[in-house]
Every structure is written in structure tokens, then in C-alpha cells.
Amino acid sequence: MTKSWNDLADLQAPDYSTYNNLLIIDANNLSYRWLQRANYASFDSDFIRTIQSLAKSYEAARTIVCFDFGKSYYRMDMHDEYKGTRKKPQDEEEAKKYEEFFAVLNALPDQLDEEVLKFRGVEADDILAWITQNVSQKYEHTWIVSSDRDLYQLIDENVSIFNIFGRKEVTLQSLREDYDVNPSEYMLSRIIEGDKSDNILGIEGIGPKRAQGLAREYKTLDSLLEALPIKGRSKYIQNLNAGQNQLVRNERLINLKKYCVDAITAGKYGDEPLNQLNAL
């Protein structure tokens, strides 16, 4: 399903009394929409208006904007090469572009009228996971704005995702239609295949299709681990049988619902962010 709204159209004041949805913005992810545009160093107004338009489109009674604030202390502590493939540009012109882009991004929280959550050493994914488990039930439906596939594990009957880059809504039904897995099985497939963008290595020889097949068969990580060693002469089966420790580590890195509290409290300010979240 695609959306045809114009995010820079003139906005009429909505009747919030009729709205009962929650909108959660993966702010850093959304901001990359402007990195390759001409206004990469001045996209703040467009960012703000896009959020306002999304809130209107999804009839949001409440909008929460979640920012990354550095790399996750929790994940860096167990995997020092986490996101290690993301290098700063070496080209002087490109480096200047990134510097100007991030200057705008870092100033955004002070410009937004919406609720903002940003904690040093905590990633937006973990904040999003906490909100969907502790706040979403107060609303008719929750919409997450992000293109991050790791968030598919948060989808349920009342939580969906809008990928603004592909203009596609990802719901419980569409996830099943596109991948033939449910959200927990999708998460298991990511644990098995890893996440190259975050430098989380998966089991060698197992890509998305094979990982999703294994997830459909075993359903949970515990069931998969109990089944090891699996009979088979294929190299990927041998790698899987030898990869128990890697699978356990990957689950701690990837399973947002299970470990979001650990990830939040491992940040610079300990339990303080969790206390703020509990007041939402």
C-alpha cells in the first residue's frame, strides 16, 4: 500500500478531538531523506512540516519523535565493532556536507513542538520498542515512521510502519504477504542472517530467504538452539551447527522487545531515561 499525500502541502488545522492514533518518528532515519537533496544544510523546516503532515495523515492524537544519540552503549559493550563499517567520509567536500547535515539534525530537538526523546548512548530503536510495549495500548493504532527493517519485529495488529522512502505501509498482513513470516519469525530470521548495515555478522552462507525458511520451521530461537546440531552436509548447516554462541549474541543485539530496557538503562544516564519514559 502506498501513500500519495504531499508532505509539503499547506496544512489545515486538524480536529484533534477525532484522532486517537499514536505516531512515533524514527528521527535520524527520517532525516536521511534530505541528505542527498539540495537543502541538506537547511532541511529543518521541511522536516517539521513533514512530521505535521504525517500526524494529520495518520490522525495522530500524539506524536513522539525519537532520536539516536551516539551509538548504543549496550551494543558497543558486547560488540565493539558494532556499526564499525560506517565510516566518516574522507573526501573533504563530502565531509563538509555531512558536517552541515548533522548540524541541522542535532539542532532539530530544540525546534520541535512535538514530544522529543533523546538520550546519550541510547538508540531510537530501543525507545520505539519500549513505547510500543508500554504506551501504544492507550491508542487505537500506532504508526512508526521508519525504513529500518529491524523494527518489523514490533509490528502487531495495532502497530504498523510507514516507510516514507518507499511510500509503503508495512502491516501485520503485508509482512505475511511479502515474507511469509510473522514479526517474531522475521526477527529470528534477522538473528540468523545478521545485519550488515550494523556490522552484525550472521551465519555464513545463510541469506534472507534461507533465514526466513529456518524461522518458519523453528519459530523461536530456543527451538532452533534445541534442534542443533541439525543433520545435513551442506556448508551452511555446518556453519549453523557451529554458530550457537553467535546466535545467542545476535539475539541480544537484535531483539528489541526483550532487551530494550537493558539498552536504555545502559546509556550514559542509567535509569533516568527509563523514569522519563515511565511518565509518558
Please give a structural write-up.
It is globular, with a radius of gyration of 20 Å. It is built from 13 helices and 8 strands. It has 280 residues and is an alpha/beta fold. The longest helix has 16 residues. α5 crosses α12, α7 packs across α8 and α7 crosses α11. The strands form 2 sheets. A 6-stranded mixed sheet has the order 3-2-1-4-5-6, with helices on both faces.
Number of helices: 13
**Rg over C-alpha atoms, rounded to the nearest angstrom:** 20 Å
Largest beta-sheet details: 6 strands, mixed
What percent of residues are in strands?
5-15%
The tally of beta strands, per DSSP, is: 8
Strand order of the largest sheet: 3-2-1-4-5-6
Observed structural traits:
six-stranded mixed β-sheet, alpha/beta, single chain, 280 residues, 44% helix
Q: How do you describe this structure in short?
A:
By secondary structure, this protein is of the alpha/beta class. The protein is built from 13 helices and 8 strands. Helix 5 crosses helix 12 and helix 7 packs across helix 8.
